[in-house]
Amino acid sequence: MSAGIIGPMPHDHAERLARARGQAELAGLGAIVVAPGPDLMYLTGYGPPPLERLTALVVRPGTDPILLVPTLERPRAAASPAEDLVGFVTWSDGESMHASLGKLLPERGTIGVIDQMWAWHLMELERELPAATFVSAARTLSRLRIRKDAGELELLARAGRAADETFARVAKEDFAGRAEEQIAARLRELLVEEGCDAASFWIVASGPNGASPHHEPSIRILQAGDPAVLDFGGTVGGYGSDLSRTVSVGEPSAEVREVHDVVRRAQEAAFHAVRPGVRAQDIDHAARHVIEEAGFGAAFIHRTGHGIGLEAHEEPYIVRGNEEVLEPGMCFSIEPGIYLKGRFGVRIEDIVAVTEDSAVRLNEAPRELTLVA
Ligand code: ZN
Ligand code: ZN
Ligand code: ZN
Fold first, then answer.
1. How far apart are CA 266 and CA 249, in angstroms?
2. How many Å lie between the centroid of ligand 2 and the Cα of residue 35?
3. Average pLDDT score over residue span 295-310
């Protein structure tokens, strides 16, 4: 992704930068240092890879934002929306990049740094500015990104539709006799055919492998009677999808049907609990309660969900202990699962968006147990 105008409407980076400056001021930070990653992309539309050569955006209350870039990456930055948004300072190979960054920052006071800046860059920066105190700016910046605007919601919806269509198409193909990694390769192809810029992940976990939520697709050949967890997604304009469905190769056992039904009811209960004003942990509880009542509590070995946007996992996390109050525009997964070691697993996952009074799903692939050939 290179341009700012990628969705149905261009992202308003100038407004985002202004909000970031406001947040820095509110948090009492003399500056925020943003290294390459989703925060830099969100604020400026510039997405270079994180490298040993330092790139960093400096957001300071009372001044215009400045992007420090290596001289050889200056043309790359010029091709991004950042060109019209920020001032540029370059450093060349052989110069001290950390001293260059230090000069753009206040000598003392508190400086916020994003969590995804390499520890090495931060440690060198601390040596440059011994009188300054460095703190995490993760919370400050995640406040900006946690509520999606209309343009972001449209991209998330498009990514969701591509995942739904991918599921519809793969479910028409033969599963029996193919290896997990062959089906995973098809998921990757179909996601792109259905409109994703790139596939992001492609879990196919059949039979006993289904008991591992993050199973790596293997050479295991699927056979009649296997349940299989499919969990995949891709990005549209940088925004991701994340869909899980569990299928059965031919007739499922009564036990697979029962477990699938419990997970489906848990997913449904959690979805219906979503509305502005409830806490993230209430959604986790709604799903977990159904699974516990059915006697499978110990087999639900992860949180109920995670936020999604420029990152596949971001705030808000739908987990016990998270008292974050849901607000319109928040987007996250609801993905309860039951994992029976050595036997099989079931997971059902949709992305949902909080609306003014309830929620909408961004996935409509059928949630019943789908029988495949
Ligand atoms: Zn996961
Ligand atoms: Zn997933
Ligand atoms: Zn997920």
1. 23
2. 27
3. 98
Give the distance (Å) from ligand 2 centre to CA of residue 131: 44
Q: pLDDT tens digits, residue range 257-294?
A: 999 999 999 999 999 999 999 999 999 999 999 999 99
User: 119 C-alpha to center of ligand 1: Å?
Assistant: 26
Neighbours of 323 (CB within 10 A): 8
What domains can be seen in the chain, in order of their start residue? 13-145 (3.40.350.10), 150-372 (3.90.230.10)
- Could you list which residues have their CB under 5 Å from ion ligand 3? 242, 333
Q: What is the pLDDT of residue 8?
A: 57
Separation between Cα atoms, residue 22 and residue 14, nearest integer Å: 12
Q: What is the largest CA-CA distance in the chain?
A: 68
Q: How many angstroms separate the alpha carbon of residue 25 from the centre of ligand 3? A: 34
Ligand 2 centroid distance, CA of 349 (Å): 6
Task: Map residue 324 onto helix, strand or coil.
Answer: coil
pLDDT level of residue 4 (50, 70, 90 thresholds): very low
- Residue 142's pLDDT band (cuts 50, 70, 90): confident
